[in-house]
Automatic annotation (TrEMBL):
InterPro entries: SBP_5, SBP_5_dom
Residue ranges constituting the Solute-binding protein family domain according to the UniProt record: 41-138
Native source species: Geodermatophilus obscurus (strain ATCC 25078 / DSM 43160 / JCM 3152 / CCUG 61914 / KCC A-0152 / KCTC 9177 / NBRC 13315 / NRRL B-3577 / G-20)
Transmembrane regions listed in the UniProt entry: none
Protein name per the record: Solute-binding protein family 5 domain-containing protein
Molecular function as annotated in GO: peptide transmembrane transporter activity
GO biological process: peptide transport
Gene3D superfamilies tied to this protein: Periplasmic binding protein-like II
Length: 161
């Protein structure tokens, strides 16, 4: 197996639209689950999903995936993104049905490639919600010039960034 190519630069996206977060995330980040054109669940960053009971969903994640900046993708990235999004009053303003109940919904890292989500009650939309749940590298949230959806600039991730 050949090594993945080394990152060669930075992509700067400039979009003045009030929906810029939508256009940027859908074009620069991957999600755990996709829905195909026939409406069926297709795993993307996840390679498996299993309901352990009516309130607990476990995702098995792909191995050997890297972000554009070279960072290895692990369950810790998904948890970080989940925890950050749970801080917002409305992570998906145009589609509030995509939001996980906060703060009762939690993510637990089982190992580097397994994540367990617990919800306050049965959630028949949970798998579909992961379709709109885009995963950024830790540098997106923690880096020196990290956009983090605007936290460093505006003190919140909601709104323009």
């Amino acid at each position: 197996m050949t090594a993945p190519p080394e990152p060669v630069g930075t992509v700067h996206v400039v979009d003045p639209s009030p929906l810029n977060w939508l256009f940027i995330t859908w074009n620069t980040m991957e999600e755990p689950i996709r829905i195909d054109r026939d409406g069926r669940v297709v795993h993307s960053l996840a390679e498996s999903s299993e309901w352990l009971d009516d309130r607990t969903l476990e995702l098995g994640l792909r191995r050997n995936v890297r972000f554009q900046d070279g960072e290895h993708f692990t369950a810790h990235n998904v948890k970080q993104n989940f925890d950050e999004m749970q801080r917002w009053a409305a992570p998906h303003p145009p589609g509030t049905w995509l939001n996980f109940p906060a703060p009762q919904s939690t993510a637990e890292v089982v190992d580097d490639h397994t994540l367990r989500f617990s919800f306050p009650g049965p959630d028949g939309l949970a798998i579909g919600k992961f379709r709109g749940f885009h995963i950024a590298s830790s540098a997106f949230w923690n880096g020196k010039d990290a956009p983090g959806f605007g936290y460093k600039k505006f003190g919140s991730g909601e709104g323009h960034w």
